[in-house]
Specification:
With 353 residues, the protein is α+β, with helices and mostly antiparallel strands. It has a domain of 244 residues: Beta Barrel (Thrombin, subunit H), CATH 2.40.10.120. 13% of the residues lie in helices and 29% in strands. It contains five helices and 13 strands. A six-stranded antiparallel barrel has the order 1-2-3-6-5-4. It has a six-stranded antiparallel barrel with strand order 7-8-9-13-11-10.
Length: 353
């Protein structure tokens, strides 16, 4: 089965003082259990989690548990999902409490597909989050684009329990929102804030960047912007400083009440160049597809010391020679990577009715 790193933040850490208003939390708000005194944190073995996730997806695919590829394609039509999300709490939380309240509601979503010989290969993976207890999850629409023939999906929680994707409920390509169902019950939904997060306000994000699972980053909202896509449709974005990367697509951005205020979706790479008209590179943080495991082994170098070949020894350069000195101004042209998210009200629009 092919191995893939996957699809959304390092931080400008903005601290805040948790306050405790007299109003009780609203129904549906996540319960925040206190951290056990002196408890050791959960250590994540990334390689193990990756391998087990795709092994379980392969098993589900062989048993024909996920929604069939042709049925998934047929359901990829823009429409509201008709789900009523939980309401945010009224009590502000510390960053630690935000993480504890949300982490069990963040999933890995990924795919497998058959090759020409019928062997299951790793597809891609991203991040998803729970919006309804009966197995309804949310991620980016672009997670379900550019699919291979026969590609099917599943999702797994932080404990490694994997579930097949059984239905696609709605969303929108331009909004970059997708809502789907997995075969799970009794999940803890994340509340969704009804309004826009204020510019400068704190946000936290839990995602799976670059094969590193359940990374928690923090930052601030920087601005709101629009642009026209290739289909000449207007996209709306929320800028943040919280870090994310490949594998983070669909990650929930949370405010200090533990409510979703956005969803990681896009990065803009700003490079130094002499042409001001050159467009910035827009990248969806969906994990790329890797070569198959068999191909990886073909390219492995033989172990042990390689035999010496006469006249093939590397020449030792004089460190005082000019060509060994670093050239000033010849570093990376990249100046900045801007992180873009789907604003919360747009997420809410396509989740709801």
């Amino acid at each position: 089965m092919t191995r893939v790193p996957l699809l959304a933040l390092a931080v400008l850490a903005l601290g805040f003082v948790a306050t405790a208003p007299a109003d009780p939390p609203r129904p549906g708000a996540p319960a925040v259990a206190p951290a056990p005194a002196g408890a050791e944190p959960k250590y994540i073995n990334d390689d193990e989690m990756y391998e087990q996730f795709f092994d379980k997806l392969e098993e589900l695919a062989k048993e024909k548990k996920p929604l069939a590829h042709v049925d998934l394609i047929a359901k990829l039509q823009p429409r509201p999902a008709g789900v009523t999300p939980a309401k945010p709490a009224a009590k502000a939380l510390s960053p630690e409490e935000v993480y504890r309240a949300a982490v069990a509601s963040v999933f890995v979503v990924g795919s497998v597909h058959p090759d020409k010989d019928g062997n299951w290969q790793t597809g891609t993976y991203a991040t998803a989050w729970v919006v309804a207890a009966d197995g309804v999850l949310v991620t980016n629409w672009h997670v379900f684009e550019d699919l291979k023939n026969g590609e099917v999906f599943g999702a797994a929680d932080r404990n490694g329990t994997a579930y097949p994707l059984t239905d696609f409920l709605g969303g929108d390509k331009t909004a970059d929102v997708a809502v789907f169902r997995i075969a799970a019950k009794g999940l803890t939904p994340l509340p969704v804030a009804p309004g826009h997060a204020e510019i400068g306000s704190w946000v936290g994000l839990i995602s799976h960047p670059g094969d590193l699972f359940y990374v928690y980053t923090q930052g601030a909202v920087t601005r709101y912007s629009t642009n026209k896509n290739e289909d000449d449709k207007v996209e709306k974005w929320m800028g943040v400083t919280a870090e994310f990367a490949s594998g983070s697509s669909g990650s929930p951005l949370l405010n200090k009440y533990g409510a979703v205020v956005g969803m990681a979706a896009l990065t803009l790479s700003l490079d130094a160049n002499d042409d001001p008209k050159k467009p910035v590179r827009r990248t969806r943080p969906l994990a790329p597809r890797r070569p198959s495991r068999g191909d990886d082994k073909k390219n492995e170098k033989p172990k042990g010391k390689a035999p010496e070949v006469p006249g093939d020894k590397p020449k030792v350069k004089d460190p005082e020679k000019p060509d060994m000195k670093p050239e000033i101004g010849k570093g990376s042209p990249q100046q900045m990577v801007v992180k873009m998210a789907v604003p919360g009200p747009i997420v809410l629009k396509w989740i709801g009715k």
